[in-house]
Every structure is written in structure tokens, then in C-alpha cells.
Amino acid sequence: MNAPQKNAGSSSSKTFFLLAIIAGLGLSAALVNIGAPSGSVPSTTSDLAKAQRLQKVGSVTLKTVQKDRPLATGEEVYKAQCAACHAAGISGAPIFGNADAWGPRLGQGFEALVQSVLHGKGAMSAQSGGQFTDFEISRAVAYVANAGGGKFVDPQAPAAEEK
What we know:
This protein is an all-alpha fold.
């Protein structure tokens, strides 16, 4: 008869142990909530951190090139599109007029430089498809390269684009 009593005692100790675990979990949850702010006011710090993490990395803008406008010179394109980085050497851009920085690049030839600019290279994004035509971009390449010691001829407008 001792065997049934051991099972009964064992069952009540299991029940007590289970109730103790449930009470402990409830007490832990209550203690955690004591430190939390009451109400539904969101934390501005976490909202600000979330907003900063969700900032867009970049954007794409499609623009149309006005066909009726006069073609921009290399200098005009440089000032509008290139000077922001090349005037100060931002992100490793060779500085405008610095022959030491431009020397190795000039050896690649004019067409290779134009292709690098049109399609992008390193930190420089592709310049093709923006507000300037590829021809105007090539004029800017000649302008910038020549300021750095190059001897490239300024590209002339194709007959179809001349007005």
C-alpha cells in the first residue's frame, strides 16, 4: 500500500512545482513591466532611430533632355555635374587641374575616359542619361582632362545635332 501513497505524494509535489513555475513566470513578467512606460506613448528615441535606419539610400530620377536648347560646353557641364566632387577630390575623385592625379588616367585615352564617365567607375556613378547628352558629357571629359594636362581635342557636335 505504500506504492499508491508515493504516487499520490509525487503527483502533489509535481503540481506544487508546476504552480511555483507559473507563479515565478507571472512575477517575472510583472517585474519587467514595472520598468516599462505606461500608456501607448511611443518612445521618440526608438522612433527616431527607426526612421534613420529606414532612410532611402538613393533615388532614380528620369529626366528628358531638351532637344531645342543649345549644347552645353565642357566647362558648363563640369560646373553643373562634375565640380561637386572633382573640385575637392571627394571620394577619391582626381582633383580638377591636378596633373599628377590625372596623368595615369590620361594614358587610357579619351574614349576610355568617356566610357568610364558614361558608365560609372569607382565611387562615380554613371553620368549617361542625366540632364546632359552623352556628347555634352564627352565635352566635359575633354575639358577636365585637358585641365589636368591632357591634349584632347574638344569634340565637335555631330551634323545631326548642330543648329
